[in-house]
Amino acid sequence: MDTLSYKTVSANDATVDKQWVVVDAQAAVLGRLASEVAKILRGKNKANFTPHVDCGDNVIVINADKVRLTGKKWDEKVYVRHTGYPGGQRISTPKLLKQKSSAILVEKAVRGMLPKNRLGRKLYGNLYVYEGAEHPHEAQQPKNITL
Q1: CA-CA distance, 71 to 8, in Å (whole number)?
Q2: Which 3-state string (H, E, C) describes 46-87?
Q3: Separation CA 134–CA 147 (nearest Å)
Q4: Which of 5, 62, 89, 96 has the fewest Cβ atoms within 10 angstroms?
């Protein structure tokens, strides 16, 4: 029996093949877009996925200002945070966040789908979100992905 043919191969920082990927968020539903982007960031779409290694791709999301939310989520969904002071609970809606920056909506959605540990914080650094169709990463020669 050939025991070398079925050994499990674990990826590490030296053997990981990281690519650059562009995802167009035009007319995409926020949650469905975020889950696909989180999978790509994590590397779960690759054959050599290893849970404790950053084996995902760098993701550029363009047209974040054209993302959609279904139902009444623009007004009824709430993002709650706390300043740390007594009475410091702050509540905002997607409509208020979009007025500041549409990129914040996509970043919050993707960040919530990543692991809550130091690996998740490192993976979040591989996400680049832009409101328009232009991005400054042409030198990396990213490939387009349709979701």
Answers
A1: 45
A2: CCCCCCCCCCCCEEEEECHHHCECCCCHHHHCCEEEECCCCC
A3: 19
A4: 5
Written as six digits, the tokens of 27 are 């007319």
**What is the reported pLDDT for 1?**
56
Long-range contacts of range 136-139, CB-CB < 8 Å, 24 or more positions apart?
137/20, 137/60
Q: What is the pLDDT of residues 18-76, one digit of tens each?
A: 999 999 999 999 999 999 999 999 999 999 899 999 999 999 999 999 999 999 999 99
Q: Which residue, 57, 51, 66, 37, is CA-closest to 115?
A: 51
Q: What amino acid is encoded at 122 in this protein? A: K
- In 3D space, the residue among 17, 19, 16, 30 whose CA is nearest the CA of residue 147 turns out to be 30
Q: Are 22 and 62 in contact (CB under 8 A)?
A: yes
Q: Do the Cβ atoms of 80 and 90 come closer than 8 Å?
A: yes
pLDDT tens, 90-137? 999 999 999 999 999 999 999 999 999 999 999 999 999 999 999 999
CA 54 to CA 119: how far, in whole Å? Answer: 7
